[in-house]
Amino acid sequence: MNRPNHVAPKTLLETLPRDRAESYLNHCSGNSASASALYLWEMDMAAALHEVLSMTEVAVRGAIDAQLQSFAKSHGVASGEWIKERDSLPHLSELRFANGRPLFDHGSLRRMSRKQEGGRTRMHPRSQASTSHGDLIAQVMFGTWGAMLPDKNDSRPQSVQDAINGLWREALQEAFPQYR
User: Fold this and answer.
1) Model pTM?
2) Residue 104: DSSP 8-state
3) In a 10 Å sphere around its CB, with 0-12 CB exposed, 13-18 middle and 19+ buried, how is residue 38 labelled?
4) What does the pLDDT average to over 69-86?
């Protein structure tokens, strides 16, 4: 990672909350240079993890979406746009977060759609385009994709777990063939 090397270690530590800076200093026996180096190393590790996590999210999202598009088509949704037609498809309307909120509710989708369209400047190549299926899918949080997958420690109601297991058997297991 390229970053300026001209920040004095003590100055860097002074930008941190006292408790945080002290934890680095204590770990490095009070040596400011070592504590700063440790802090910067942790930043590098977090950045590297974020890069891998971002790629993983795109791969998981793409794999699940492809299977759900096929699932939707097999249930009469010609466009495959399962997210817009989720209420007419088996299992999808029954999916809930642990707090009981639907994974994909109409209000959230409308807000995502408006956010997507409103964020485009006039110079954007799709400034006049309506929100596409891909736009909506890209707005879905990573945790939502995970909430669609079976989990032996799931504490959600049995009806939700049954919907997840049904969706897994009928569509999603093909996205992750190594877990059949």
Assistant:
1) 0.81
2) S
3) middle
4) 96
Residues β-bridged to residue 119: none
Amino acid at 125: P
**How sure is the predictor about 104, in pLDDT bands with cuts at 50, 70 and 90?**
confident
Residue of 3, 167, 160 whose CA lies nearest to 70 = 167
Alpha carbon 61 to chain centroid distance? 8
Question: Which has more confidence, 41 or 125?
Answer: 41
What's the start-to-end Cα distance of the chain, in Å?
A: 39
CA nearest neighbour of 140 among 37, 90, 65? 65
Rounded to whole angstroms, the Cα distance separating 148 from 112 reads 19
CA distance 86 to 133: 12
Query: CA 128 to CA 64: how far, in whole Å?
Result: 28
Question: Smallest Cα–Cα separation from 144: which of 136, 152, 25?
Answer: 136
Q: Spell out the residues 6+ positions from residue 43 whose beta carbon is closer than 8 angstroms to its own.
A: 1
